[in-house]
Amino acid sequence: MSSTSIGAGSPITPGEPHQERPDTRSALRRWLTDGLTDRTGRHPGPGAAKPVKTHSWWRVMCLTGVDYFSTLGYQPAIAALAAGLLSPFATIVLILLTLLGALPVYRRVARESFRGEGSIAMLERLLPWWGGKLVVLVLLGFAATDFMITITLSAADATAHAIENPFAPSWFHGNEVIITLVLIAALAVVFLRGFKEAINIAVVLVAVFLVLNAVVIVVSLGHVFDNPIVVGDWWGALTAEHGNPIVMVGIALIAFPKLALGLSGFETGVAVMPQITGSPDDKPDKPLARIRGGKRLLTTAAVIMSAFLITSSVVTTLLIPQKDFQAGGPANGRALAYLAHQFLGEGFGTVYDVSTIAILWFAGASAMAGLLNLVPRYLPRYGMAPHWAGLVRPLVLVFTAIAVLITLWFGANVDAQAGAYATGVLVLITSASVAVTLSARRKKQRAAMIGFAVVSVVFLYTTVANIIERPDGVRIAALFILGIIVVSIVSRVQRSFQLRATSVSLDPMALDFVLTDADEFDSIRIIANEPDDGSAREYVQKIAEERRDSGIPQRSPVIFLEVYPSDSSDFEEDLVVRGEAVHGFRVLKVTSGNIPNTIATVLLEIRDLTGVVPNIYFEWTEGSPISNMLKYLVTGTGEVAPVTREVLRRAERDRKHRPEVHVS
Fold this sequence. Notes:
62% of the residues lie in helices and 7% in strands. The chain is built from 22 helices and eight strands. The chain is elongated.
């Protein structure tokens, strides 16, 4: 069996040393494209490579926790602003949805998509061909919204904590946008230099932050117990404003979608699963120990967050006047920090602010890592992004530029970005719910399918309600989706003449066919044949026509090459060439979604294996050249002969080493 990776450039023929081309790129370009070595194979990005070192599930939980738990820095204030005095009731609804909805969904995602690809990969597998690709592109737009707004919103809230600290310089006030941009720039510098030891930093930040929050909440609950009148005042104001308890529950159900920020950690939780230490007995296709670790991670994080959500909601609602939550108020975007300063003094409050600023800034790092992990997994593999989309530094610069634009657009306002953040989170959770529902349906698990379908409906309602209330998220996501689709179409067209195979394998019979002709006749003549009825008459007629029209000598042996179409939406694929004797004729058979590119790849592989430049013979395709080209772009068929020749021309610049294409 022969198996090699395919690349452009001159062949390495037997006995001929390979000459490396001098690197003429500028220093900046070399720095930006560092690591771009495989120009045709899968390049799933920096987060997809097997980690050098894995970690216990609880340590990895801290990596996703810097995103999930950091929302405590602003979630209670946003909840109070969105639901008012009903914030605790709306938070209870959110917790129920977390533990009974999102958690079961993502535990199943962890079981079925354990390579860090999340729920998007499940939908990709369940929805093949172009429909699946389009769904992935749309979900990538919402994922980009989620992660990008995480970066900008977290930096903006870190800025709010810095500005409201009593020891902050006076010039901080009024310069929120500048400070936020500095934090974003610092984040970019970290990734440009190399993002190392992230988990160790995350463990420290999460541990300190959760302990400080626990102290603030326990002290605040002590004040509530010492002053029970605040409970009476709250309940009196609540009943005066909303009437009876049934009305309160109804309003809470309507208001809770605005609290969706408290669901932000689940997609990140399954994305970091490759970092979890498994067991030596784990199988690559079913790593049971790693899956168990992923489920523990999700469950523990959800329980911890639920406890903090309800207790923080209670103390902030009871102890902070509602007017202080409004824009410009001292508790806006920093409710727990407000209580820390009020009840524990400015010294402890400052420590809390520093801890909050650090974890919020690092939450942006977690989101950046998520983007660098997610985007290269799909777009380059679809042919819908240039090769540099698999590299860290160019992507960091692109994402940083987008973050700067978003910050300027929203003026570093936390409340203004909350809707967009919630939209991205909810769409991803809804898509995950649909994915596990479809998975359960395919596996005929009726009870699971019904349960997940109910969860999907609930999240769909939550998403729609959030979009109606705060349409900014859809507008931003639409811009991301439009940008991704435009870039994808342009890139797919530009890359349509590239070699697409990540590897080529010839089975023993196929290898024997080509080596025999190369050794005995010093020539390899291949006839491209579109399979019809597979009868002996078909092959006899085809070879007679090509010998007559193309001038193939009667005594010269020929080999047929047949490409059987598959999913044309796949851009990169592993090719397996099978040799078969059909009615006494030698036939090479290969399955692929892109016929011309596959033929060119196989020809180059034959050349490199034998040291003989092969000749291939086609007949002209009927129909309009324009319609055939459009057909090629969509279905991978169409005008095969000229496209094959163009792919070969671009892949091999030296005509002496380029396989010859004959058309009659």
